[in-house]
């Protein structure tokens, strides 16, 4: 199943508000939570990863639906990993085919791929002081307060309830 990220197109990225999605990747349920995130700095393209604590679903942040879908689908094709996409094509990737968390490459190769990935996200506009893949890994960690994104949507962890995106 190809992933489609189209929910509420037309968000203005001039204020660094980007679309964020968490897509279930283990049981093919089709569950996906979609929301927004501020402070990543991405100016074009999308980034996605399978390292998203605790359940390690696919998490994706992007400036447009097409690149978000391409990034999420590329993570799926890799059987896990981290990718940067621009204009529908992966510009850098770090495959993590062992449970979507670990590389099967030697340390030198994995480090080189990781460096290319970090260079690519910088080229897409993310500033040096932002670690977007680390931020992504924890924005979906629904066991720590306060507001997190899950495959079911935005969650108030303390109250254990889903929150609406719009009032």
Characterization of this structure:
Mean pLDDT is about 85; it is low at about 5-10. The N and C termini lie far apart (about 30 Å). The chain has one domain (about 15-165). The protein is built from three helices and nine strands, in the order E-E-E-E-H-E-E-H-H-E-E-E. A hairpin with an 8-residue loop joins strand 3 (about 45-50) and strand 4. The chain has about 170 residues and is an alpha+beta fold.
- Overall structural class, as computed from helix and strand content, comes to alpha+beta
Global mean pLDDT = 86
Provide the gyration radius in Å: 15 Å
Number of E-type strands: 9
Largest sheet: 6 strands, antiparallel
Instruction: Tell me the series of helices and strands, N- to C-terminal.
Output: EEEEHEEHHEEE
Shape: globular
Unreliable stretches (pLDDT < 50, length at least 5) are 5-11
How are the strands ordered across the major sheet?
2-1-4-3-5-6
Cα end-to-end separation: 32 Å
Give the strand content: 25-35%
What fraction, in percent, of the residue positions are helical?
A: 10-25%
Number of distinct helices: 3
* Number of discrete domains: 1
Q: What is the topology?
A:
Layout: E1 17-23, E2 32-38, E3 46-49, E4 58-62, H1 65-78, E5 81-86, E6 89-95, H2 107-123, H3 132-139, E7 147-150, E8 153-156, E9 161-163
Antiparallel strand pairs: 1-2, 1-4, 3-4, 3-5, 5-6, 7-8, 8-9
């Amino acid at each position: 199943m190809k992933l489609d990220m189209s929910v509420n197109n037309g968000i203005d990225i001039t204020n660094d508000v980007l679309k964020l999605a968490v897509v279930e990747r283990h049981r093919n349920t089709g569950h996906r939570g979609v929301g927004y995130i501020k402070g990543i700095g991405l100016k074009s393209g999308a980034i996605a990863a399978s390292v998203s604590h605790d359940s390690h679903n696919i998490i994706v942040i992007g400036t447009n639906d097409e690149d978000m879908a391409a990034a999420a689908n590329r993570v799926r094709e890799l059987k896990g990993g981290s990718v940067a996409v621009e204009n529908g094509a992966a510009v850098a990737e770090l495959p993590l085919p062992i449970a979507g968390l670990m590389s099967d490459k030697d340390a030198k190769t994995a480090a080189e791929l990781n460096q290319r990935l970090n260079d690519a996200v910088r080229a897409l506009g993310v500033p040096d002081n932002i670690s977007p893949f680390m931020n992504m890994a924890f924005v979906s960690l629904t066991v720590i307060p306060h507001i997190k994104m899950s495959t079911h949507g935005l969650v108030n962890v303390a109250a254990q309830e889903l929150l609406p995106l719009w009032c």
